[in-house]
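A reminder from the course coordinator: this example appears on the midterm review sheet, so study it carefully.

Given structure:
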C-alpha cells in the first residue's frame, strides 16, 4: 500500500536508487504494513530516502566534473567565468585548476591566459582569437595576439604620470562587439586585475583599429582607412 505525502521531499524520481521505503516494508511483520502502521513507516522511510538523496546530491555538487549544475556552481564559487563557446569538458578542467590560476591572479600574464581560455584555445590555434592589450602607466605593455602568442614590451609614454598613476592600467579589447555586451567583455579583465591597482580602464575598439600615440599595429593608415570609417573606429570605454 502506498501513501501520498503532504509535500514532495525530493529524490522520488530516482527509480534505481536503493530506497529505504522499499526495504522497510519487506522486513517488518504484516501487521505493520497495514493502514496505520504502513503509513507511519512509509512516512519515516521517505524522509530517510530524501535525506540520503539530498546528502549525496550535495556532495556531488562539490565536484565540477559530475554534471552541468555542479559545474556552474563550482565555477561561480571559484570565480572562473565560462566562455561563450567553452565545452563542459574544457571548462571542467579549468575549474579544477582554479587554485594554481588564482595563485597568479593579479598578474597581467594570468589575465591574458584567462582571456585566451575564455574565448577558446581553438580560435587562437586557428589564428582567429580575440587580441587584447594590457598597458600600465609605467609603460609596460602585455599583449595577446590572435594566434595565442603572449608578448611583453616597454612603451615610451613620456611626461610625468599623475599622482597615483603607477596603479593605473588600461585594457584594450580588439573585438567586434556592441555596447550592450560591454559588461560581459570587461568581466575577465576586471576580475583578474591586481587588487592593489585602481579599477581597470577597459576600452573596446574594432579589430585592426589603431589608436593615436599607441604602439604601431600591423596595419597602415591607408589600409585602415579602406576597412573602416572614422565613425566605425570610435572606441567606447566600459564604465
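Designed residues:
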Amino acid at each position: 500500500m502506498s501513501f501520498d505525502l503532504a509535500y514532495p521531499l525530493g529524490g522520488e524520481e530516482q527509480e534505481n536508487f536503493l530506497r529505504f521505503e522499499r526495504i522497510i516494508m519487506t522486513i517488518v511483520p504484516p501487521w505493520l504494513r497495514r493502514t496505520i502502521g504502513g503509513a507511519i513507516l512509509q512516512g519515516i522511510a521517505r524522509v530517510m530516502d530524501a535525506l540520503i538523496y539530498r546528502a549525496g546530491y550535495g556532495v556531488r555538487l562539490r565536484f565540477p566534473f559530475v554534471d552541468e549544475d555542479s559545474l556552474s556552481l563550482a565555477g561561480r564559487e571559484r570565480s572562473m567565468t565560462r566562455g561563450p563557446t567553452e565545452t563542459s569538458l574544457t571548462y571542467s578542467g579549468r575549474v579544477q585548476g582554479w587554485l594554481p590560476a588564482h595563485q597568479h591572479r593579479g598578474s597581467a600574464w594570468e589575465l591574458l591566459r584567462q582571456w585566451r581560455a575564455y574565448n577558446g584555445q581553438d580560435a587562437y590555434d586557428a589564428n582567429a582569437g580575440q587580441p587584447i592589450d594590457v598597458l600600465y602607466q609605467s609603460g609596460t605593455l602585455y599583449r595577446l595576439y590572435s594566434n595565442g602568442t603572449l608578448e611583453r614590451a616597454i612603451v615610451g609614454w613620456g611626461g610625468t604620470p599623475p599622482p597615483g598613476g603607477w596603479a593605473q592600467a588600461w585594457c584594450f579589447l580588439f573585438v567586434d562587439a556592441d555596447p550592450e555586451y560591454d559588461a560581459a567583455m570587461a568581466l575577465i579583465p576586471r576580475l583578474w586585475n591586481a587588487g592593489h591597482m585602481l579599477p581597470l580602464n577597459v576600452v573596446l575598439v574594432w579589430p585592426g583599429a589603431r589608436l593615436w600615440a599607441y604602439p604601431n599595429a600591423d596595419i597602415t593608415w591607408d589600409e585602415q582607412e579602406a576597412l573602416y570609417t572614422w565613425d566605425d573606429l570610435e572606441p567606447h570605454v566600459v564604465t
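The chain is about 40% helix and 10% strand. Confidence is low (pLDDT under 50) at residues 1-13.
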